[in-house]
Every structure is written in structure tokens, then in C-alpha cells.
Amino acid sequence: MERTRRLTAKGAATRARIVETAADQVLARGVGGTSLDDVRAATRTSKSQLFHYFPDGKHELVRAIVACQGERVLDAQRPALDALDSWAAWAAWRDLVIAHYTRVDGVLGCPIGSLSSEVAAVDPVLRDDLAAYFRTWSELLAAGVGRMRERGLLDDGADPEAFATELLAAIQGGLLLSQTAGTLRPLELALDGALAHLRTHAVM
Description:
The chain is mainly α. It folds into two domains: about 10-65, Arc Repressor Mutant, subunit A (Orthogonal Bundle), CATH 1.10.10; about 70-200, Orthogonal Bundle (Tetracycline Repressor, domain 2), CATH 1.10.357. About 70% of the residues lie in helices and about 0% in strands. The chain contains nine helices and no strands. The chain has helices at about 10-30, 35-45, 45-55, 60-75, 85-105, 110-120, 125-150, 160-180, 185-200. The chain starts with 8 loop residues before the first helix and ends in a 5-residue tail after the last helix. The mean pLDDT is about 90.
């Protein structure tokens, strides 16, 4: 069980540095391919330091990585993600998504999606943590579709929850194909296709 601890500002900064470095390692190698010794070496921390910040070991660290990556993914889409109320805003959001994954070396895919494919089936705690971030992401997209309907830019046939699911599926599926293709073109096509479908409900 993860224990709640009070940390000094310096301690919190050290813990955050460990999590961010470990998150990058896990994205590149996977949870199974990243050991605590790997994290210690990359962060130049001792075993006692690592267990000071993560007394429950690797599982607690991976939960922190899930939180870190979830926030990274959502923050990369802001501010457009929080203000999807026009076609220009949707275009800006699309460009932020593509730009974020363009900056990820080697087209490694979505950090949340990669973690989900590795641990969701075997760890219910991590599955719930990951599901919470997908749910938040979906709710933000659905809210954007809802705002477009309220402004009279989309007809009533545009279901917010359905389009949020379609857009997320386009991103995750597009990234999976991009991993094997070595280019983000599949992501671009999948996301543009989902947005083109949304435009079929535009009120002229």
C-alpha cells in the first residue's frame, strides 16, 4: 500500500526528478525492461534514497510514472484542449497533438497507451490509474463537442461521448501504426479522418 509522506520542497523536487527520468526510461524500454537499478543509475541516487521516496518499491514508482505521463500528455494539448469551442480551436488542438508526438524521439507512441498495453491486463490498480487519465482526456474532448453544439456550430446528431471515443481511438490507433511505420503519417491521417467526420455535423 502506498504511504502518504510529507516532503520538503527539496525532497519533492528530488522525487519529481526521479519520476520524470524513470518515466522516460519506461517509455523507451517498458516497465518490464526498466529495473530500479536502472533508475538509480540514471538519477544518481542510492538505494536508500530511492526507497525513501518510494518505500513500496517499483509498484509505487510506476504509479507515480502513470501520473507523470498522464499529466504530460494532457499538458501537451493545452491550452487548446481546455477551449475547444471553434473549428480554429480544434485545428490548434490537432496541431498540438502532432507536435507533441513529433518531439518524442523514435515515434515511441503515447505514454499512457504504451503503459496500458503492458500493465492493464495484469495490474488492476495501475489499470484504474490509467483509466482515470483516459477518462479525463475523453471528458475534455466531449466537453469541446458539447460547446460546439451549444454555440450552434454542430447539429444535435454530434454525440459528445461518441466523438470523444472516436478521437481517442484515432490517436491511439494512429500512434500504434506510426510505431511500426516509423513516421507519424498514420497518426495524422487517423486524426484528420476523425475530425473530418466531426465536420460532417457542422451547421452551415
